Amino acid sequence: MKYLLDTSVYVAMAVEEDIYHDQSVEFARSIVNAPLLTPTIVIAEVLTIVSKLKPSELTSAYRNLLKNEIVQLDLKFLQSFFKRVTVVDHLKASDLVIVVTASIHKTTLVTWDKGMLTYAGALCDVASPKTLLSQSIKA
To answer: CB 3.0–4.6 Å: which of 12, 45, 95, 114 could bond 20 by disulfide?
Structure first.
């Protein structure tokens, strides 16, 4: 299975004080061999937040993100975005870009963001790391 991890998951992994840190790290370990898709907007958001909250982790975060399959937000993306933009109207633009990216690539969006968890299901598979970890334990 291919995953798209949202900014909230990467930040939780990088910042030990984050309430979701342990679960995010555990989830990341559980999918260590799974392909990861990362839109450039997630990279920009993660680097911005980590530079403020945990600057010592910035270089490591950047290097790790670049190991993933990177999705450029280009004209082709915008054409697909245009077709989907009205499907979900309760998300801010950057979150909608991430949701649409997961939709286009038919991948599971993994997030702690309550808005995405509530509304993204109209366009893509979405779950929290906690939910996916509990499903893998049951399987």
So the answer is: 12
